[in-house]
Structure formats: C-alpha cells, structure tokens
Amino acid sequence: MVKKDCSQAVIAILRSDSSLVAFTRSHRDGSFLLTGIPPGKYLLLVTHPSYSPYSSSLIIRKGFPTDLGQLSPPPKTEDLAAVIVTPKTLPPKMHGDTLEYNTSNIKTRVNANVEELLARLPGVQIDQHGGITVNGKKVERLLVDGEDFFGGDPTIVTRNFNADMIAKVQILDKKSDQAQFTGIEDGQKTKTINLTLKEDSKKGYFSKIEAGGDTEGYYNLNGLLGSFKGSRQFAALGIIANTGITGFSGNVGELGSGLGIGGSVSDALGASAGSGIPRVMGGGTHYANKWNGNENHAVANYQYGRLVSDPYASSIVQQTLKDSIYTQTEENRSNNTQDQHSMDADYDFVPDTLMAFHFSIGGTSMQGHNQFASMGSSSFNDTLVNRSLRTIRDEVTNQSWRGSGMWRIRDAKNRGRNFSIVAGMAKQDNTTNGFLYSQNDFFKPDGGLLRSDTVDQRKVMTTSGVIINSSLNYTEPLWKKAGLGISYGLTFNRSQSLQSTYNKGDGKYEDYDDDLSNHYQNNILTQRATLNLQVIDRIFSYNIGGDILHFAYKQEDVLKGSTLKYHYVNFAPRIGLRYNMDNFGGFNFDYNGTTQQPLVTQLQPVQNNNDPLHIIIGNPDLHSSFSHNFTLGFHNLRPLVINAGLHYSFTSNGISTRTTTDSLGRQVSQAVNTSGGSNGDLNLSINKRLKKIDLDLGLNTNFSYGRSVNYVNQYLSKNDNYNAGGGLSVVKYIPQKFMIQINTNFNYSYSRSSINPLEATHFWTQGHSGIFSVFPLESEIGTVLSYTWREKISHFDQHNSSVLLNAFIKKNFLQNRLTISWQINDILGQNSGITRTITTNQTSENATNVIGRYWMLTASYRFMHHKKII
C-alpha cells in the first residue's frame, strides 16, 4: 500500500454492474481486512485525499487468500493541469407523441435568449420576425412548464428568457382543451412548444431591463420581471419603442403578435396601407399557480397595447385572363392608431379523484382611428384603361368576450368510465363608422378620357355574433388501453350584418342609398354526434372515429322581410395512427375531414363598394365546403436526426370567387362554390452533429403543390402552383473564441392557369444569411449578413435583390449581468421590404416602408435571485 498516511485510504470492491460488495478504511499500518466476499471477478477502487483514484481488476478464489500487494496511485498534483470538459448533448427522444430535447448542456453564448437555443435544435427554423416553424409547420403556442404565458405567444418568451433557464424543450401537437378534459378526440390540434425550466430557475425571481437610443430619434425601452417558485409563476413586462418592434415579438408583418399590440382590428373599410414602422407602447401581467396538492389551478393574463403607424406601400398585381394580362399598380399611404385591452383566465378545481371542474373566460376591446389615401392605374397588355384616387377616414370598434365551463365525473370502480358536460358562450361586435371618397377616370384605347365617376359617401357598417355551444360526453373502457368515446353537441350561431350608406347632398351625408344598404340576420343550428375509438400503447396507438353533423341554416333580409332556409348533413371521419419503433424513431398517420362555413359578409347579396373599381357582391346561395386532410410523418433521432412530413388535402364544394373584369378594368367579385381544389407539401430535414470538429450540420428540402379553382369572367380557371426548394445550415460555436452560423436556401416557383396556359409565371429566389462573432476579453464583436435575390419577371424588374449588413459590439460587466452594446443596422442601405406571392390566377409584388440604416447604443441588465421574493 502507499506509504503516505495510509490510514486515510478507503477501499471499495464493486461487481461488474458497479454495485457495492464491500467497503472499509485502512488500519494505521495500511493493512485492510475484508472477509465474507464470495469468489468471483470484481473491480477494486482505492481513494485517498492526496492521491488520484486508483482502480484495477480483482479475482477472489475460493480457499485462497488474496494479497493486493503494493498499490501506487498517482499523486493528485499530476491532475492539476487545465481540463476542457465538452458537455454531452443527449439525443432527442419521443415520449408518446411528444418530441423532447434535453437542452441543459447545449452550448450557447453568454446571455443568449431562448430563440437562439431553439434555432440550434434539428428541424426548428426561426424567421427574422421570431416566427417558429417545426418541419414546415408553424408553432402557434408556447408554454412554460405547461402554462400559457401571455396567451401562449411564442416570442414573448423566446426573446426575453435566457437560454440557461431551460432544461428541456418539448414539441407536440396539443389537443384542444375540450378534448383533453373529456378524453374524446375532436381533430383540433395546435403545434406547440413547451419549455421545462431548470429547478434553479423556479426558486426566486429574475429580471431584464433594456434601454437604447440614437441621435436620430430611434428608441427602445423594454423590461421583464418574473418570479417563479415551484408551480407559481408571476411575470410583468412592458415596452416603448419605435424601431419596428410590436410587443416583444418584433413581428411587424403580422400585427397580432407580441403583446397583441394592433392585433386583428377588423376594419370593414380597409383603411390601412399595411404595417409600416410602428410606434408602440404596451405592457402585461401573467400569473399561474397550483395549490392544495394541485387541487386548485389558476392562470391569468392581461395585456394592453397602443400602436401608431404611418405605412406607405406600393403593389403590382398581374392577373392572367383568357386573352390578355391585366396589370394593376397602386400606391397607398395611411395613418393608423390602435388601442387594445385583452385578458384571459382559466381555473381548474379537482376536489377529489372522481370529479373535476374547468372554467375559462376572456375578452378583448380594440379601438382604431384611420386615414387612408390611394392612387392607382390599370392596363390591359400595357394599354391604360383606368386611373383612380381614393381616400378613407374611419373609426373602428371591436369588442369580444367568451366564457365556458366543463364538469367531469368518474366511476369509482372503473376510472376509464367518465361522464362530462361542456357549455360555453361567445359574443363579438364590430363597428366601422367612416367616409369614402373615390374618383375614377376611364380611358379610350387611344388614351383619350372616356368618362369620370365620383363616389362621396358616409358608411356605417356593423357585424355582430353570438355563439352558444354545449355537449354531453361519455367514455367507456373496452379492454386494456382501449376506450370508446361518445358525444352529442349542440351549437347555435346567430350573426347580423348591417350596412348603412349615405350619399352627400347639400354638403351633408343624409341621402340614404337603398342599393348599398342592407340588414341581414343569419341563424345556424349545428348538431354533432361523435363516436371515437382510442387505443393508447407505448408502441402502437390509434384512434378511429368521426362526427355526423346536421346543419340548419336560416337567413333573413330584415329590410325586405324575406327568408332563405336550407339544411344538410355531413360526415367528418377521423383516423390517427402512431407507431414507435423505439424512443428514437417512428411513424404517424392522420386523416380528418373538416367543414368551412361561409362568412356572413360572403352571404349578403348587396354590393360592397369600398373600392369602386373592385366591387364585392355576396352570395346567399353559398354553401359550406368540405375538406379531406391527410398527413404522414416519419422521425428518426439517431444517429442522424431525420424528420419527414407529407401532407395532402382536397376540397369539395370549396368557397372560391367569380371575378368579372369589363373593358374598362372594373372588377366585380362574388364568392361561389367550386370543386377540384387541392394542395400538398413534402418537407424533409436531416441534421447531424459532427463531434470531431464540433459542428452542427443541417439539410432541409421542401416541395409543395396547390391547385385552386375560380371563375375568371365566364371561364373556369384551374390554377396550378408549384414550389420546390432546399437549404443548408451550419453552426459552429467554440466558447470564449468564436461562433459562426450560416443558412442558405434556394426556391423555384411555377404558376400556370388553364385559361391562358401560354402565360405561365416562373422564377427563382435565393435567401442566404450568416452570423459571425468573436469573443475577445469577455466581449463580443459580430456581424449579421443576409442576401435576398429574386429573378426578374415581366413587370417585376425592380429591387430584385438586396444585401442587409448589420454589425455590433457587446461588452459584459458585473458578472455578465450588465451588457453595453453598440449596433448599426442596414449598413449598405438596401432594406427594401419587398414580398412576392402567387394566388389563384394572379402574381403580386408588394413593397412597404421599413427602417433603413440606423445605429443604436443599448444597455441591458439581467438579474436572477434564487431566494423567495414574495
């Protein structure tokens, strides 16, 4: 044995499975006494405070003493050299239908947020506005430890929570609240991410405050305070900014994000030119908790937002007609102000193991003030046919609220036997009160003025609706892991549409226009009978069932006293299959049938002349559509992470449009039912971590096809759209040294209409981006580069490419709590805000005003305290 203070040595004898057989300390003379050990092969382990651990194999024979001899473990001084530990990233696993990533050991930059963490996960893509997609499917909800955080908006968390707070990321298709409560599938699922916090992140409070500005008047001030303790969550946040950020999401393309600032205000006159560069102010609070042993559970969110914007937009729209190309150009400006309050709350009460209650309420109130101006012209094959000038100013009010309750009781002897009742009510009221002025000039083929029309009107447009729904639900266990669900539901939907139009006369808007005024009331009574068989197993699970729906529809013309009635029956089947080969691979297949009801504005047969060159007429004979949806998925999580998804759907009696264009370029559109519409897409992503060179490599490809059917004048147009693309991603991160991330994508689009197949549209687009950072002296110096290229097509020959170059410098202080950064955006001044889309028989390109080159100096302070705050 060793000579130095042998009495401190410890010896242990282990089996081959590492289980302990014997354990003792040495005597003063360094000897050991171990008796009663059966013969066999063992592992000898010796430890000593002054020496490194020593191990060797050991064989004990029956009837023979064992002499360990002289043991010479190496001194610990030899182990004091620096050691670089590379964390082991565990592969993702499947738990039922949930894909789970263990992210606690993924290496990220200091103060990296959750968005950067998610971007490192295979199959996850994040766009410039913070929108998240997983294998081509948009993520609509984000949960924190299973709780809706500010209504489930993803970017509030992804851009404000630190990555080092997260232990696991789970990706799932979340069932509806009613399906989870009753146990009966209803086919409604939402792509959801759930973030599981580390235990240390739930033992106190954390905060973030950020302030930035420049000499040109740009500013951004935002803050977050959170207190998490066990199952209790509290958070408050706020923002004031004019840098194009709405709420915490930064998603200026879809104003319903972040704090919901400017979200989904329904303006019947359409007095907005787009998003522009918004100036925002908003805030919100979140609370969630469980108590009495999870007997009680509550979650609540409140949000306020104010948005002011002055957007400018231009557009070119090309429509393929039977014997010509109809081109429309337009330039729009507007001033828009929106104020919004919203809240939601849920409460669960489980008094015992047999009974449960769930209550939910929510509401939103929005007000908007808008001024809009537009100038445009139209031509057939480059021959000018009309020119227009249009202005709108209006005030808009939207109010909605909802409430529901659910009750469930279980059989004491058979827990799979449940009976539940669901009831709920929702109400919505939208009002637009405004003024429309339009002047339209029409031209002869030789360019001479043919005629001029003027519209000068006041409009009051109101829509309202009430929905009352209820259901009785019963589940019965059939055999082990199998159950049958039976449900009967009743829904009553009552909606009204009122449009009052007044022409200007003697300087006042008092002349009531009968032709452009209406009052319609629609009642829809829906009965739903559901039968569903569900088998849940670790390897193979499935559910088979569907709904039989009976619709009774009644439309009343209140002004004329006429009534229209009809009823019909639909069958909506559902099939869901899931096969797990193991925790790292499997297949899933889903089919469901869905119906789409026509909107009340599509049913009213009067004209909507908000844009006199594009008249819309309702269709009281419009019926609901029915779609068949098929999804096939495959995943393999090691050695390569492979995710593949195939989706296909086709629609019968689809709701489309009939658009008639006359010789002066005036268009009249009406919703009609058509058949033959279909679409499909294929997405494939392959990801691999190359451990030897510490590199994350990803490959993705996609293909989509869509056929839409509509009427162009009297002709039925079948429009085929194809898109194919793919890309590559590379990420390499060496802590305290550098980080490089490259993403590249190529896409080809092709569109053709049956009414004029020779006028096909096809073009290539490219998108490439890269981030490069170095970390000298606890600082970060980096640049962000993105390049977008669009192939020129016909009239779309301007701004076909752009290069966006940003740069930044960051320095951390106070143990990385305080960060001072300087950044300059759009160094080359090429930010263009251009998008190109293809729908039905038309291709359009739109451009909106965006922030150009600017710099900003920002201070950000983050703090986490692992003690009780309240």
What is the CATH top level name of the domain at 480-675? Mainly Beta
Q: How does CATH name the architecture of the domain at 480-675?
A: Beta Barrel
Which fold does the CATH topology of the domain at 480-675 refer to? Maltoporin, Chain A
- Overall mean pLDDT score? 84
C-alpha Rg, in Å?
33 Å
Q: CATH homologous superfamily name of the domain at 480-675? A: TonB-dependent receptor, beta-barrel domain
Helicity range: under 10%
Number of helices: 4
Task: Please state the structural category.
Answer: mainly beta
Biggest sheet features: 26 strands, antiparallel, barrel
Unreliable residue runs: 77-88, 248-264
Query: What's the shape?
Result: globular
How many strands?
47
What does this structure look like?
It is a single chain. The protein has about 850 residues and is mainly β. Among the domains are: about 5-80, Immunoglobulin-like; about 95-195, Beta Complex (Ferric Hydroxamate Uptake Protein, Chain A, domain 1); about 480-675, Beta Barrel (Maltoporin, Chain A), CATH 2.40.170; about 675-870. The chain contains four helices and 47 strands.
Topology (elements, then pairings):
Blueprint (H helix, E strand, L loop, with lengths): L9 E5 L5 E6 L14 E9 L2 E10 L32 E3 L2 E5 L11 H6 L4 E3 L5 E3 L2 E2 L2 E4 L2 E2 L5 H5 L7 E10 L1 H6 L6 E9 L5 E11 L5 E11 L2 E10 L37 E13 L4 E14 L2 E9 L4 E25 L5 E26 L2 E28 L7 E26 L5 E31 L2 E24 L2 E5 L5 E18 L4 E18 L4 E21 L2 E12 L3 H4 L3 E2 L5 E4 L7 E12 L4 E12 L1 E8 L5 E8 L2 E14 L4 E18 L2 E20 L3 E16 L7 E14 L4 E12 L10 E13 L4 E8 L8 E6 L2 E7 L5 E12 L5
Parallel strand pairs: 10-13, 32-36, 35-38
Antiparallel strand pairs: 1-2, 1-3, 3-4, 5-6, 6-12, 7-8, 8-9, 10-11, 12-13, 14-15, 14-47, 15-16, 16-17, 17-18, 18-20, 19-20, 19-46, 20-21, 21-22, 22-23, 23-24, 24-25, 25-26, 25-27, 27-28, 28-29, 29-30, 30-33, 31-32, 33-34, 34-37, 35-36, 37-38, 38-39, 39-40, 40-41, 41-42, 42-43, 43-44, 44-47, ...
